[in-house]
Structure formats: structure tokens, C-alpha cells
Amino acid sequence: MNAPDWQPYFLFTGGAAAALIGLIFVAMSLHVSQVMENPDWRGRARGSISVLYFQLLLAIWVLVPGQSDVILGAEIAFVGLFAVIVTGPRLWRIFEHAHFERTVMLTYGLAMASYAAMVVAGLAILARQATLAGGMLTLSTVTGFTFAIVSAWWFLARIGETA
Fold first, then answer.
1. Other C-beta atoms within 10 Å of 34: how many?
2. CA 103 to centroid of chain Cα atoms
3. Helix axis angle, 102-126 relative to 39-63, nearest 10°?
4. Under 8 Å between Cβ of 54 and 2
5. Rg (the chain; Cα; Å)
6. Is the pLDDT of residue 98 over 60?
7. With the CA atoms of 139, 141, 142 and 146 taken in that order, what torsion angle do they form, in degrees rounded to the nearest 10?
């Protein structure tokens, strides 16, 4: 993979992820007691921040100058695998609760797809499959941001209903 070719893309996505994380923190700080009392809101906020954080890490690693493909592929595969392992049990608990809507399951599925695409991208970089790696990096970013934006919107709309 030619990481310098991806620098503009990851400068953009890394900056967007950092900005959105900041906005979510501001929204949470304005309604901290409500967020902490409501497990649905807490989960949405945590999920949005987590996905964006992993996208920020992805951007940082791609932007490290002079990094070998072996290191880059291992970093991306590791963070994706870590996210799957940490998030998987949480998602299973969310899916078990009957009060969650089907759309919640679909949006959280986007988060898992983002993490799985990171794993595949990392492995593709290690296997020197640049086209597959690029496609999976793009898929990870698109599904991750889609989850974060939908989830953050849901979170902010619910807080707005109670204000």
C-alpha cells in the first residue's frame, strides 16, 4: 500500500473524527446527569465516540511518515480485532434487550462492519493486496462515520425531547 497516496483522505477523515468527538463531548457535558442516568443514551454516546476514536487511530497510523507496510498492516488489523473483541459482547447484550428497536441493531451492525473491515484491511496490507486494502479502509471509514453520525443524531434528538 502506498500510504502517502492516502494522506489527503486520512487528513480529512482524522480531522472529521476529532471534531465530531469534540462535539459529542460538548453535548454530553451539557446533559451529563441525563446521559449518565439513561443506559441507552450512555451506550449511544460511548458507541459514537468509540467508532470515531478508532477512525482517528486509523488516520494517525496511516499518516505516520516512513512506516513500513508490515507495521501499518499489523496496527490496523490489531485495532480492528481489538474493537471487535471489546465491542462484540456489548453488542450482544444490546441485541438481547427487547426494548431496542430493529434500527438500533442495524446501526450497531455498522459499527461492527467498520471494525471487521479494519481487520481485513490490515491483513490485506500485510498480504500486499493494495486494492483490497484500499476498499476495506474506505468501507471501514464510511460505515464507521455512518454509525457515529446516526447514533449521535439519535442521542442528541432524544436529549432534545427531554429539554
1. 15
2. 18
3. 20
4. no
5. 16
6. no
7. 130
Give the sign of the dihedral formed by CA 34, CA 35, CA 39, CA 41.
positive
CA distance 41 to 159: 8
What is residue 142's predicted lDDT score, i.e. its pLDDT? 94
* Model pLDDT for residues 3-57, shown as the tens digit of each residue: 788 899 999 999 999 999 998 888 888 888 887 887 777 777 788 888 999 999 9
State how far the Cα of 139 lies from the Cα of 13, in Å rounded to an integer.
13
Positive or negative: CA dihedral 1, 125, 72, 60: positive
Measured distance between the N- and C-terminal CA atoms of the chain, rounded to whole angstroms: 49
pLDDT band for 138, please (50, 70, 90 cuts): very high
Distance CA 44, CA 47 (A): 5
Q: If you count them, how many residues does the chain have?
A: 163
Residue 113 has pLDDT above 60, yes or no: yes
At residue 53, what is the residue type?
Y
Cα separations in angstroms, 159 against 13, 23, 35, 77, 119: 27, 14, 8, 36, 34
